[in-house]
Structures are given as C-alpha cells and as structure tokens.
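Bump. Still looking for Interleukin 22 receptor, alpha 2 structure tokens.
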Amino acid sequence: TPLLSCTLRTNTCLCLVTFKLLLLYLPQEHDLAPPTNLRFDSVDYKNVLSWSPPANGSSLLYDVQWKIYGDPDWLDAASCRGTQKLRCDLSSETSVPREWYYARVRSASGPSARSAWALSRRFSPRWATRISPPVLKLKVSQQKVVVQVEPPRLHIRKMHSSLQFKIYLTHPSGEEGALPGGPPSPRKLTLHLRHRQRYCVQAQTQILLQAKSSARSPPTCVSTL
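Sorry for the wait, here they are.
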C-alpha cells in the first residue's frame, strides 16, 4: 500500500543516515599518517631498521614487515608487531648477506586505526654493513709481546673464511710498520721487541672477498720488561 511503501522508504533512509553517522566516528583504515625516514643501519651484520614518527605521533604503535627482493609476500617481524619503539632489529630476518631485502612500517592506534605502509629502500647486508675493528689483548713477557686478536662479533668469523687482521706496530721512535699477514690470518702473534721500550699496537679487520675494511682499533700501548 502507499502508506507501507512510504514507511519502508522512511526506515531505509533512517538506516542509511544512521550508518553514515557511525562511519564518521569509527576509526578508518589509513586515517593515520605513516612513519617517515625509514633506514637500515648495519654494523657487523647486526641489521637494525629505524624510522621517525609522523607529526603528533608520540602515542602510536608500529607494525613491521619484511621480504626478500623479488618475493611477492610480506612477512611479519614478530618481535616488532605493535611496538612502541622507533627501531626493529631484523638481523635474524635478514641473515643471508647475499640477498637484498625490503622492510615496511605502518602506524597503528587502537584496535583498527592503521596508516598506509611506509617502504624502506632496498637493503643488502653484504654491501651495507660496516665492520668493526678487532679486539686486542696484549700480554708482556720480558722482551716479547703476545698479541691476541678477536673479531668484535663471532658471527663475522663464522660468515667469512677470508677474514683477515692487519696489525700495526708503532715503535718508540714514532715509526709505524704493518706486520705482514695473509689468510688464514693468525689470531695470536708473538712480537720480539727491545728491552724496556714502549710500543703501541693497532689492528684492522679486513674481508678480502668484499674489499671491505674496518677502521683501526684504538692504540693499545705496553712497555716491555
């Protein structure tokens, strides 16, 4: 009947208006600004992704995903899902040096408010990581100095059969000399030096296959007996 038809139309209009009003107050997908300035920082293959919060984003949470270059699927970084931090250690996820990787981060607030994903640049652990200088331990015995050299992380030694250490010796006169070496590089050297003289030793980590070198370690100085 005309009256019933009118009532149905009125109820339908009321439902539509109510639904639209609800949408205005519900959190919407992508109604948050995404994080910015995504960047990888890698030292000794410890690969850490960091980012900057969007404006007025002090109380936001963040979700992190990663993938290998060329793969279609993104994977969750389980330890960085809903994190409050502005960094995520992806060393385990990006542990194959020869691969290239992407990461992405989004802002989150509440149960359903999410931003669009912010994408990192393509990242290669092999080429991007910086190598730290080795750790030196010196032991003096009469006119001998025993130099023990260790990489800063055991992971470096396991990954590279071409790992080498270059050792520099500074004499009392100030003259400096590099000790000859080649792979396999010795972990311990015995230097026969003059009696009651002060010597300083530095070392440098080198990865021959990548033509990659660390900075020198700080000078470690000892006096012979």
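The two ends are 115 Å apart (CA to CA).

Edit: fixed formatting.
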